[in-house]
Amino acid sequence: MTVTDDRPSAVLGTRLLRREDPALLTGEAKYTNDLDLPGALHLAVLRSPYAHARIVSVDLSAAQASPGVVAVYSGADLAGEWASPMPSAWAVTADMKNPAHYPLASSKVCYVGDGVACVLATSDVAARDALELIDVRYEPLPAVVDLEDALSDRVVIHDELSTNSSYTWDLKIEGTEGQVEQAFADAAFTVKERYVQQRLIPMAMEPRAVAAVPQPFGGDMVLYSATQIPHILKVMTALTLGIPEHQMRVIAPSVGGGFGSKLDVYAEELLCVALARKHRVPVRWNEERGEGTVATTHGRGQIQHVELAADADGKLTAVRIRLLADMGGYQQLITAGIPILGAFLYAGVYDLPQAYDFSCTGVYTTLTPTDAYRGAGRPEATYAIERAMDALADQMGIDPMDLRKRNFIRKEQFPYTAFTGLVYDSGDHLAAAEMAAEMADYDGTRARQKAQNVPGAKKLLGIGQASYFEMCGLAPSRVLASLNYSAGGWEAATVRILPTNKVQVVTGTAPHGQGHETAWSMIVADKLGIAPGDVDVLHSDTALAPLGLDTYGSRSLPVGGVAIAIACDKVIDKAKKIAAHQLEANEDDLDFTGGAFTVKGSPDRTMPLAAIAFEAFTAHNLPDGLEPNLEAQVTYDPPNFSWPFGTHICTVEVDTETGQVDVLQYVAVDDCGVQVNPLIVEGQVHGGVIQGLAQALYEEAAYDTDGNLKNASLAEYLVPAASDVPPITLGHTVTPSPTNQLGVKGIGEAGTIGAAPAVINAVVDALSGLGVTDVPMPASPHNVWKAIQAATNNSQGASK
Amino acid sequence: MIPAAFDYVRAGSAAEAISLIGQHGDEAKFLAGGHSLLPLMKLRLAAPSVLVDIGRVSDLSYIKDAGDHIAIGALTRHMDVETSAVLQEHVPLLAHAAGHVGDPQVRHRGTIGGSIAHADPASDLPATTLALGATYIAQGPNGTREIAAADFYQGFLESALAADEMLTEIRVPKMQGAGWSFQKFNRRAQDWAIVGVAAWRRNGDSGVALVNMGSTPILATSVSGALAQGASVSDAAQLAAEEAEPQSDLNASPEYRVHLAKVLVRRALEAASA
Questions:
Q1: Which residues contact A25 (CB under 8 A, 6 or more apart)?
Q2: Interchain contact, B256 vs A785, CB within 8 Å
Q3: pLDDT (0 to 100) of residue A71
Q4: What is the percentage of chain B residues whose pLDDT exceeds 90?
Q5: What residues of B are in contact with residue A290 (Cβ under 8 Å)?
Q6: In chain A, what are the domains?
Q7: Which residues of chain A have pLDDT under 70?
Q8: Which residues in chain A are contacts of B189 at CB distance < 8 A?
């Protein structure tokens, strides 16, 4: 398929203000914790203070006597509630080791924050006060904090597995045996790097919140949750609790961000439903911020060993990757698969022959479980290849931009079948890189750098680049099958024209800040020739929108939005039959423009959609055999991923005395194909860049050797604030996706993917004259200072 | 993030506040702007049984020219210190430093007296008033007394105030045209300093105090002593941490803090000497 006309139309591509915002900005929007639920009991969870310990005994008696307390349960008390352990949907290998994990631990705790008991009380305060009266005796065991220590099996966390290694997943290219080794043997240049992707805490602005409400008759249960995945949650809750699926309804009210951390099935969701079922009253839980830092999944957590081989011109000839992935104490919903989502991208945007060797081992540690976090595997992959490309350029003594240009997949090679068999549908990396270089005044900055970075200079200028390809729009179901993922990647949409020509769209996407209501209304308005304001978007309630696979992986527009466009086409096809019938014309002779059907060559023989909608409703005069009403339902399984790309360039100045990094300029050129609403695109890129910059400069879940999180609050875990954000200049190239009729690609994760390597490349570039070759993330002043000290000491040692 | 239960009483005047704190004993605490105490209570690191709210004692919010010094009421908000024309003219270092406390919301609620009485070594204003040689006025059941800033800070979050005393006024000598600088080194604009330096210099005289370089704000007397004896700025700055006992935390090792103190003191003195 190709883009068939000259979109954007009058609506598509405009900067329409988000219809979601007035309610969000005025506080009118209702989040889960805002729901008024008379008679609800409040749940509080007692969490382990130990990273690793056996539970010797749990004494609930004092808590049971506490004012306002209705019930107190240990893990053992609730063992009968579960039809199965907590779900893990991604067994990446057939022999993956995955211990049974229940909402409350009963014999052993495996991270600080692991739930051991819970209280139901008439108020949140009463419930939390009673937690302090529960007496749990633990037998502490050694914590396993370090990934390589975990791999050694010095301390085995899950006795029944007899190892901390859960799986090793290899990407083997058939028929290429020996090519990688040969390429490294023949290489003119090789680099071998080790990078650490520190653990990050997602810190969605709205903490998690849950309310389970049993319905008066028949055993139905409504679960409200601050979740990204109401549909998946419905299935998983039904299975885990043994509730017939048709009796479970999940509603995600306004959700204040997720970044992947709400793409999960959590203990508190299952506990609320189980206890609401048991006590036959609504049960609610609201996460405290400090609690969320340990009880909500973390992101990243990898050690990456990266090797590149190149010929004398710097052309890549082989890539070898060995990953260690920190899964935490247990697997959550898709923990094991996160690094695998990046497995195909370690050659980045470069034209690599088949010599690719990837292997990832997932290991358990006694830390909070990891799972999806904005980009999920792809930022890690992009970081590794883009940092390694700079290392290669440094070794060759050429400009990193030049090295990239020698290796880019060229525009005329698209669609490009990669060594993995994946087809990159479109791209123009050179154009994006040149646009970014122009915007960042790359050559001018290099000249200024030469003048400024003289021996003894206290402020050093650095410029860094990252070019990325993102594999998103998850996902073609057959590809997911090949990865052993236990669901598909389709999305559902219904478009329904009401008798008065207002439109209802039902989508299976689950927005939590993205602006789907605005964007989907624009797609429909464009298709049907009506005003966006006449389109209502229904979502995030499994009773209203029974089919869907929710929102993550930059999938909502290229999968869910495209499904809506196809449903519009089907509605138009049906309306055309009615118009042809009433205008006494042949369907082929009708044009549909501006919301009306007109007989070609006879502008007076016309019928607006509004009239057809009413005719379809009355059904007084429809063609024989045609059902009344205008409605179409579509389930769209994308034939390919979506492949946004771009180049980010960051300019920094580093204070060599203090280690402080000052970002002078950040340029992001992103290509997400056709833009439905540039305002929303810019918001996504801004937010994404800031989140990537946060990984590069600010954030890290810091643990002590006993497995205690040392920065479990927003005072200590440094999420950058508005005043810390540098100027960000955006540019876009537009390469429409040939995979879908809208020509769109996802943009939710791109900023995060580009930012971390661009920033760190810039910092290392600034310090390269001092002999610094790497700086760990976050490049805090202290870390930068230590890197400078180490390099300076090395060079002094060498000169002696 | 829910504090333990506590009782709350509001005082209409300083005398009433002191009387109330006397009635409730050791377990009572003054509540001014609340920006130091309430976070500790929410984390249950502090659990006073009674809060005596002095936030509406309006006669303690003032900035007055008192001849050789400026008198600042303890309940004066940071924002008022920052924007005071009197302070900008006569004690510009203090006005400037007040503009670096937290973020605008904090500066509209937090008070100079609350910050000083809390005696947090990582706060900006205790060190700044220490560098300036301020005198604090404490009022108790038996009247008022003066406490020199240099005698006030006795340990981590510990001051010379008795349990039934209330800080009512801060007297800061006029700077008489001294050069000055406030160096705040942090990772995010809103954060406490990793290391901070408040410094002024006039002829042979100087005052240098360090933020977050020990369990109390630190007066860098070795630096001032060296300068008085004619040492160069860079030589004097090498003595920056002589009086300090820096701690390790997530942002810095003691070694890095000492290094930062030397760099920042040098920069502060260079700016103050310019």
A1: none
A2: yes
A3: 98
A4: 86
A5: 1, 43
A6: 21-28+490-636 (3.30.365.10), 32-141+207-255+262-295 (3.90.1170.50), 299-474+640-799 (3.30.365.10)
A7: 1-9, 797-800
A8: 721, 723-724
